[in-house]
Design a protein that fits this description.
mainly alpha, 0% strand
């Protein structure tokens, strides 16, 4: 049996559908979110460490900058041109920003050990 969606129901569900987050495309070889300058991140960051170190962290722009400065001071990371550093920080702060959820959700009671 076919059901027609009433205009009333459409008005209820359409805003939720439009507000639903769109999954970001992730590059299969690097694990980075494909957004402006992702290849710049892949090139610079993977020269010294796994890109999983990038994707596992969530910082604001200031903390990403502090992390870069720490790597420059202690890990021999080279200095970036100001425009390059800005692109790196913008990418990281946009795509790997802090989230409100810092831990995974608790296990459902039926999944807990006895």
């Amino acid at each position: 049996m076919q059901r027609k969606i009433s205009l009333f129901m459409l008005r209820l569900i359409l805003p939720a559908l439009l507000a639903a987050p769109v999954a970001a495309e992730v590059d299969k070889s690097t694990g980075l979110i494909k957004a402006d300058n992702w290849e710049l991140i892949a090139r610079h960051c993977s020269a010294c460490h796994s890109l999983q170190l990038v994707t596992a962290n969530r910082f604001d722009r200031e903390t990403w900058l502090e992390t870069i400065r720490w790597m420059q001071k202690t890990q021999k990371l080279w200095q970036f041109e100001p425009a390059v550093e800005d692109k790196i920080l913008t990418y990281l702060a946009t795509n790997y920003a802090p989230t409100t959820q810092v831990r995974r959700p608790a296990l459902a009671p039926h999944l807990m050990p006895q």
